[in-house]
């Protein structure tokens, strides 16, 4: 998890230059507002296309992949 924690710390230090940087929301739009569901969907699907993935990516896939990763680590699937 150290890479993930460091990535979040890096983002939070960059975010200080955003309007409303003191917001409790982790991810903000360029205007300083919380990302909407539609904005998040657009970011994820565009990133998948930019990465050259052959299938259409959507945010729920992050949940699937996290669940598979946890199951592969031996976490009880009833807890996931």
UniProtKB/TrEMBL annotation:
GO terms for biological process: DNA integration; DNA recombination. Residues 1-80 form the Tyr recombinase domain. The keyword Transmembrane does not apply. The keyword tRNA-binding does not apply. Keywords: DNA recombination. SUPFAM superfamilies: DNA breaking-rejoining enzymes. InterPro entries: DNA_brk_join_enz, Integrase-like_cat_sf, Integrase_catalytic. One of its GO terms (molecular function) is DNA binding. It comes from the Bacteria. This is Tyr recombinase domain-containing protein. It comes from Shigella flexneri 2a str. 301.
